[in-house]
Specification:
The complex is a heterodimer of chains A (271) and B (292). Chain A is an alpha/beta fold. Chain A has eight helices and ten strands. Classes of the chains: A alpha/beta (271), B mainly alpha (292). Chain A: One of its GO terms (molecular function) is ATP binding.
Amino acid sequence: MSTHTSPAIELRGASKAFRTPSGALHTAVRDLDLTIGRGEFVAVVGPTGCGKSTTLTLVSGLEEPTEGEVLVAGEPVRGIGDKVGFVFQQDAVFPWRTVLSNVMAGPRFRGVPKTEARERAREWLARVGLSAFEDRYPHQLSGGQRKRVALAATFVNDPEILLMDEPFSALDVQTRALMSDELLELWSGTGASVVFVTHDLEESIALADKVVVMTAGPATVKEVFEIDLPRPRRVESVRLEPRFIEIYREIWASLGEEVRITRERSAADVA
Amino acid sequence: MSPETVAAPSAAVTKDPAGTDRARSRARAARNRSHLVHGSRVLLLVAVLGLWEWLARAGAVDPFHFSMPSRIWEQIRTWAVDGTAQGTLWEQIWYTLYEALLGWVIGVVAGVVLGIALGRIRFLADVLGPYIKVLNALPRIVLAPIFLIWFGLGPASKVASAVVLVFFPVFFNAFQGAREVDRNLVANSRILGARDRQVTFQVVIPSATSWIFTSLHVSFGFALIGAIVGEYIGATKGLGLLVAASQGTFNSAGVYAAMAILAVVALLAEGLLTFLEKRLFRWKPAEAGSDR
């Protein structure tokens, strides 16, 4: 029906305000219009603390918008849907479960029988290269390995929509590049739509089909840039291409202004 | 490239004996230190007991009031071999242990269940919170006489005092543990598809266990206190009764002997708990300096 023609994600005039502990009303997202097509990889960049992450929580159903509408596959979001996967910035693996058990968690929560869940988990562990580590506990892994567990645990649920909130920001630079390549590889087979929030412009251009620049908070869409770099891409080499640098310059002209505004504001707050 | 890779292992080989030598001497130093610590501990105990014995024999302290180690040992031996006025010593230990254990288990189960429930269900916490605070403010040991009136001289009244002493620390820790669950973990489990029940049982309870276990150590001590005080006030059997009976006959050695037996029982229970904890928390990184 209409679900086939409707875009994967649609935000229509969505706003979100929080009550701060001191009682004031803080608007994180204001009047947000954004459409993300099926199978599209969209990166959202903006100054730190502008409300990028809030956008993701609205799409995931973890939070409801105060105003406006959020649609996933043409249907308004009510609670947490089963089409959504979410990779968090901080470690969100269960420390008391082994690697295998962590990856099995999603299917088991959703009522998949144990043997089938184990099979699927093993398959995804193999794809992220952690087959030899399935009996380890998270504290025995490196930060990059834990992130791989989180990716496997998310992908094993076959999400149609993948929300990623600065997933690699806690990793060192080399590991980050490696993980970005792996993410592109994992994603390429799934046809999932991705919303990837980051403050790293280079990362966003290297990964995405579309880069959305947000304004300084309260966040709303400032500009959308199409990234016409060919796929498949290797993160390390694509950033040396002249076209990449051209795009970078173009987007930075837009993003830099917002970063400046944010910086001036926080300087004014301190003063 | 290749000369380096060849050179590196050979250098390592020549270095190796020195390395293991150093490791060996370091291990020896560590062993010596641990011998020194253990030896000093034993020495300290012997010195204190010896001083006590000597002072009592020399008449510097009155052995009738303060007793002395040899008499206490003699008392324990007599109880163990000939039995006490209330029956064999083992029966007294078993009674106290049974009351403490039963009270502890009931208190822990109630504390954990209510703590997790109130931690998860805000409405319950808001309604019951003030009452629990008031009950906690009460010095609960004064309930022991009431329990004696309610439940009589048998084990039930001691179990009840142990329960009220155990419940609160366990409850507060379980409650805190349920409240302080990493929000990211909860959000993640919800996204992965967990329902409320699954969040409670597979996220909240596992992450609260380390909080709960901290309280288990303390609370077993409380259970023993509850049982002993209950027996002391009125009982037909138990170590607390031994204390009371010894006190009644001005037998200070008896009081100390019962104390020593209690200490051993408490230490054994503590050891068992630590063992269980280690098995349960294999997923946790070893903390620096945690080997006690």
